[in-house]
Design goal:
Blueprint lengths: L9 H18 L11 E5 L3 H4 L4 H13 L5 E5 L9 H4 L5 E3 L7 H13 L8 H7 L4 E5 L11 E4 L12 H10 L15 H39 L7 H33 L1
Length: 274
Amino acid sequence: LAADQLILNPRLYSSFLLWLLSELFEQLPEVGDLEKPKLVFVFDEAHLLFDDSPPALVQRVEQVVRLIRSKGVGVYFCSQFPDDVPDNILGQLGNRVQHALRAFTPRDQKAVRVAAETFVPNPKLDVAQAISKLGTGEALVSTLQDKGIPMPVQQTLIAPPRCRMGSITDAERSQVRASSPVGMKYDTALNRESAAEMLAKRAETAAQSADAPAAKDDAEAGGFGQSIKDAVFGTKRRQGMVETMAKQTARTVGNQVGRQILRGLLGGIFGGKR
């Protein structure tokens, strides 16, 4: 698992690992107590899994670690100090490998005492002193014997790993993905519509629906006002009330003026004859 970026977010990293273990526990069949596990998880820098973790998460990790062994899955936690792993989870771990701890600070001295107390005592070995004097390749080891009985702690040499320490190369990862039946399915990135985008679109649709009646009312109000304006002032094809009244007024005034002029002319003519 290439989690070099995921591990930078400890809470997300721990949630993902818990989901992974839970899925394996639910999907894998029961196999009992195998001589060797079918699958082994080694969680390096285990303190990142438990720093500031809620109690419910720690309880779930404890439950999964305790029960997943019957599925043929082994879980190993690696950390600098034993107290980085909560006690209730540490108590579920049957195999213990402790390398050297140098007690330079009060915390280191406390860690040495805690590590010594977690092992099954060995009358022939002073665990607290042995931890601080271990050399390169040496470790204190305690495993489960037959019938699940813990073995007293022993000081021993650790054989170097015969496998590669580190992640696979990009070429090897591409080869594995190419041979996987689901490799091509996840090669193409899909930019699916997120929940935030769906909610934003829904809010925009609701806002447009709310604005539609107001716009309709404005349109209706504008149409009624235009009708009144056309009736009062008229259009290119039809006279309005103002224009009609103006013409009637002009016609009336013109008639009256014409009558006065005609009356004056007639009066002057007939008056002159007298």
